[in-house]
Amino acid sequence: MKNPRFMYPVLILAFVLVPNWAKSQDYNNAIGLRAGLTSGLTIKHFMGNSRAIEGIIGIWPYSTSITGLYEVYKGAGAAGLNWYYGGGAHASFYTGRIYYNRYYDRYYRAYDDHAFGLDLILGLEYKIPEIPFALSLDIKPFLEIHRGGGTYTALDPGLGLKIAF
């Protein structure tokens, strides 16, 4: 790297925003909704030591998915605010249907299919003090391999609202 000067602001920002790396979450369990490419029901359980498992049941027209994630939480410098990162896997199930694409003025047939994939996640979550709600904003890139050997990748940004208990 010829000029590492661009790293100085990043390091300073990291030390200012994340002074308490050992801070844990403010709740044990949560259930809620995630809106994004993977939209649906989300369930989270903290296992202690700032580690959590999260499941997402994704629901779309003509398909469903099940995602399991392992997440690590780090304090982000304010009460109730945490960074999280991790990874996991998912399985998707598609049902055959016929649909119309207006742009190409054509009908297409989608066949029954299933796929498996690997997921990463990076996000920021805020547990609202004194009320049992947590808001999250994340990006969940994934690689999906379909039955026939085709692959699909996406960044999958998402917004979540959970009831914490």
Kindly describe this structure.
This protein has 165 residues and is mainly beta. The protein has a single domain, classed as Porin. It has 1 helix and 12 strands. It has one helix at residues 7-17; strands at 29-36, 40-48, 51-60, 63-75, 81-94, 97-101, 106-110, 113-127, 133-139, 142-146, 151-154, 157-164. The strands form 2 sheets. It has an 8-stranded antiparallel barrel with strand order 1-2-3-4-5-8-9-12. Strands 6-7 form a two-stranded antiparallel ribbon. Strand 3 (51-60) and strand 4 (63-75) form a beta hairpin. The longest helix has 11 residues, at 7-17. It is elongated and about 55 Å long. The N and C termini lie far apart (47 Å). Residues 13-24 have low confidence and may be disordered.
Class from secondary-structure proportions: mainly beta
Largest sheet: 8 strands, antiparallel, barrel
Instruction: List the uncertain runs.
Output: 13-24
Helix percent band? under 10%
- CATH domain class name: Mainly Beta
* Strand count: 12
- The proportion of strand residues reads over 45%
Question: Overall mean pLDDT score?
Answer: 84
Oligomer: single chain
What key attributes describe this structure?
1 helix, elongated, 165 residues, two-stranded antiparallel sheet, Porin, mainly beta, eight-stranded antiparallel barrel, single chain
Write the layout of secondary structure elements.
Elements (H helix, E strand, L loop, with lengths): L6 H11 L11 E8 L3 E9 L2 E10 L2 E13 L5 E14 L2 E5 L4 E5 L2 E15 L5 E7 L2 E5 L4 E4 L2 E8 L1
